[in-house]
Specification:
Elements: H1 2-19, H2 24-37, H3 41-57, H4 62-78, H5 82-102, H6 107-123, H7 125-146, H8 151-163, H9 172-188, H10 201-212
Helix pairs in contact: 1-3, 2-3, 3-4, 4-5, 4-6, 5-6, 6-7, 8-9, 8-10, 9-10
Length: about 210
C-alpha cells in the first residue's frame, strides 16, 4: 500500500512539473494518451486525476473541464460499485456545468452532458430510464439544433436500440444505421486539434463491428 501511495505521489509531482512547460493542448494530449492506454480500473482512476490538475491550471478554458468530465464519465462506466459510479458522474456534471458557462451553446458540451445521462441510466436502467432519458433527450435536442450532423449524436443514438432487447423494439439491426452514419461523419471530422473534440470514433467502430457479426 505504501509503495502504491508513493508511486501516486511521484506521478502527481511529475505531472505538476510537466504542466508548467506545456500548452493546454499538449497537456490534454499527454493525459489522454495515458488515459486511453490504461487497461485496469486502477490505472484509469489514476490517470484520470491528471485532468483535475489541468482544470486547475487552465480554469478559464472550457476544453480543460470538458476532458476532465469526459474522463470521469469513462471511469464511471468502467467501475462496478454503483455509489462510486454516481460520485464520478456527479463530479463530471459539475465540470460540464462549468464548461457550459465558459462556452454557452456548445454542441460538444451538450453531447457530453447527454452521454453522462446515459451513464446514469447504465447504473440502474429500471428506475432511472424515465428521469435521465428525458435529460438525455433534452441535451441531444439542443445539440441537434446547433449541428445535426455531429458524429457523436449518431454514436449515442445508436446505443439506445443496440442495448435494448428486440422484444422491446431494439436490436443490432436497428442500431446499425446510426453507427454507419456516425462512421461516415467521423471520417469527415477535423482531427487536427483536441481543442475541438473528436472522441468516439473507436468506440463507434467497435459497436458497428458487433452489429455486423
Amino acid at each position: 500500500m505504501k509503495t502504491k501511495i508513493a508511486t501516486m505521489l511521484t506521478l502527481v509531482c511529475l505531472t505538476a512539473s510537466t504542466l508548467k512547460s506545456q500548452t493546454l493542448e499538449e497537456a490534454l494530449k499527454n493525459s489522454l494518451t495515458k488515459f486511453d492506454a490504461a487497461k485496469t480500473e486502477q490505472e484509469m482512476v489514476g490517470t484520470s486525476s491528471q485532468f483535475d490538475m489541468i482544470t486547475n491550471k487552465w480554469s478559464d478554458q472550457w476544453p480543460a473541464d470538458f476532458y476532465a468530465a469526459y474522463a470521469k464519465i469513462k471511469v464511471s462506466l468502467k467501475l462496478t460499485d454503483k455509489a462510486k459510479r454516481d460520485q464520478y458522474l456527479d463530479a463530471a456534471n459539475a465540470l460540464i456545468e462549468k464548461a457550459d458557462k465558459l462556452s454557452p451553446n456548445n454542441e460538444e458540451i451538450y453531447i457530453l452532458a447527454a452521454w453522462s445521462a446515459k451513464a446514469r441510466i447504465a447504473i440502474d436502467g429500471k428506475d432511472r430510464w424515465k428521469k435521465f432519458g428525458e435529460v438525455y433527450d433534452d441535451y441531444i435536442a439542443k445539440a441537434k439544433k446547433i449541428n445535426s450532423e455531429n458524429a457523436r449524436i449518431f454514436f449515442l443514438e445508436g446505443q439506445g436500440p443496440f442495448y435494448k432487447p428486440k422484444m422491446w423494439g431494439g436490436g443490432k439491426d436497428k442500431a446499425k444505421p446510426y453507427f454507419e452514419k456516425a462512421k461516415e461523419l467521423f471520417a469527415k471530422e477535423d482531427k487536427s486539434s483536441l481543442l475541438k473534440p473528436y472522441w468516439g470514433e473507436k468506440e463507434n467502430e467497435e459497436l458497428l463491428k458487433q452489429c455486423n457479426e
